[in-house]
Amino acid sequence: MTEQNGFIILPREILNWRWYTNANTLKLxxxxxxxxxxxxxxxxxxxxxxxxxxxxxxxxxxxxxLSVQEIxxxxxxxxxxxxxxxxxxxxxxxxxxxxxxxxxxxTNTSTNEQPTFNQRATNExxxxxxxxxxxxxxxxxxxxxxxxxxxxxxxxxNASFDLSTxxxxxxxx
Length: 173
Prior knowledge:
The protein is α+β, with helices and mostly antiparallel strands.
């Protein structure tokens, strides 16, 4: 298998793609996108370019859970519509995802400018004091509600009173 970090870009246009409703072909195509090299590199003395991967039908079958016949059919579908090309040799096949660059913009590298999950979360956090105060006030209200349900009443920031001790006392005795 290849590297497990990173991501792929999947445009919504794929909803209109010819093979979108063919589950096996779609699954294989997505698998090829995920496995394709995102940079040119050498693998076992073989030059693999961006958008290419070294694979065989049996390995693809193991990796996807599809039968070898389903892999063969899906590969034929993808070849017939020029979505992939296959250069076969006795030892291996190099599969090229023809539209790889259209799917995966050049920013899909380890130094990309895409926001990470942490950046997105930070960008969505409140940016002014009023928002921060409103969040803090809501948190305090939620804590007070939760604590009053547990039998505690908070009358100030630093003091709490346990209502369960008042059960034995009555104002009307």
